[in-house]
Amino acid sequence: MKKWLFVFFTLCLGVLQISPLGALTPFNIKPDLLLIAALSAVFFFEFKYAFFLSVFCGLFKDVFLVYPLTLNTFLFALWSFVVFKAAKEISTENILVKIGVVFLVALLQNIITGIACSYAGLIPLGIYLRVVILGSIYTAAVSPLVFKLTKKILDR
Amino acid sequence: MFKISKQNLKYLFAALIFVISIPYLISLSSNPLQKTTKTPISLFCLLQREARGLLFYHRNYLENERLRNENYLIRGKFTEFKELYQENARLKNLLVFKKKSSFKLIAARVIARAPDNWSSSLLIDKGRYQGIRKGMVAINYQGLVGKVVETGDSISKIVLVNDPGLGISGIIQRTRQEGLVNGTLGGNLIMRYLPEDADISVGDTVVTSELSQSYPKGLIIGKVTNLGKEFSGLNRYAVIKPAAELSNIEELLVIVP
């Protein structure tokens, strides 16, 4: 039940990400809510479920993209695996560690997708840096809220 | 030294009362009955109101609750009407534009936007079944919006003009100076490869050029807001504010060639 509830919650985050919510995009940057949801699943659920949810999140994101790359599906699955392995080595109980992990993953995700996008068509350095840095910070800043809501779903 | 007798104190008190009541006495001369009864009546009314408030507290409380709910309902309806009013105004503008326009147009509603930060795109509720094909141009009554890049049965993906991957050949309407217009993922566009001596100034309107075969000639792209020199120093660039408000598009029109 909790797992289905979390899938529904992820869907809501996905819809929020593709809906034209102007107030959520300062500097024309959006937080990657689906990435946070995928990482939340890794932190709070068992690996198998988290892995499939990450693939689902990546697919959801790729479906709505303009450029014909299925990079997110692959990357989201990769991040879930890497973070799961890393969580065995370091304690991710502390919220600050979780935020740090989200920031690092968002940064890597933005760097890779940014390079892939500029390969398809040149992106000026200013835009690239803006999205990579501000996008990652914004994603990390929003993550505690998603973690809190995930915890609430788990505590039900 | 300053000792006042009891008798004198009485006189002093009486004099003080007299002085204080002078304005009241003067006012009495204008409408004596009304002025005299006003204070006691208002005092009585106040007491009566308070007593009634205490006696009928429960009834007033329920009435207050009912009125509050009614207020919320009316407020909700008002917001709904406001939304409908704005939608009506937007659709009216689109309809006027559609009637005046020489193009064959398909009206569509925006249903979603890009989930990432690397592109600027949106999804519309019309697709192949409604006659939309890849490469068609999207506009609204303000100007150029973007281009269809993918079509489904009943949805289509549109890349907006502020996407850095979309290059549009544009010209300055006043001087016919040509340049390449690109997006910046933000609120502005940039027109590059302008010669050093290009006759261009702030406020000039930029329209699509006929060199661009994908876009019909003469569609308004935006207005020049700033001018600058490229890093190489060989060319100039112009910052353009898009004519269409890209951040809050809700309806648009797709040109059918």
Gist?
The complex is a heterodimer of chains A (156) and B (257). Chain A has 156 residues and is mostly helical.
| Secondary structure category of chain B | alpha+beta
CATH class designation of the domain at 168-244 in chain B = Mainly Beta
Choose one word for the global shape of chain A: globular
Structural class of chain A: mainly alpha
Q: Taking Cα atoms only, what radius of gyration of chain B do you get, to the nearest Å?
A: 36 Å
- Name of the CATH first level of chain A: Mainly Alpha
**Please, what is the average pLDDT of chain A?**
85
Q: What is the count of distinct domains of chain A?
A: 1
Q: Please give the largest β-sheet of chain A.
A: none
Can you put this structure into words, describing what you see?
The complex is a heterodimer of chains A (156) and B (257). Chain A is an all-alpha fold and 156 residues long. Chain A has a single domain (2-155), classed as Arp2/3 complex 21 kDa subunit ARPC3, CATH 1.10.1760. Chain A is built from 6 helices and no strands. Chain A has helices at 2-18, 33-44, 47-63, 71-89, 95-120, 125-155. Chain A is globular and about 45 Å long. The model of chain A has no long low-confidence stretch (mean pLDDT 85). Among the domains of chain B are: 16-55; 168-244, Thrombin, subunit H. Helix content of chain B is 36%, strand content 29%. Chain B is α+β, with helices and mostly antiparallel strands and 257 residues long. In chain B, the strands form 2 sheets. A 6-stranded antiparallel beta barrel of chain B has the order 1-2-5-4-3-12. In chain B, strands 6-7-8-11-10-9 form a 6-stranded antiparallel barrel. Classes of the chains: A mainly alpha (156), B alpha+beta (257). The interface between A and B is medium-sized, with 33 and 25 residues.
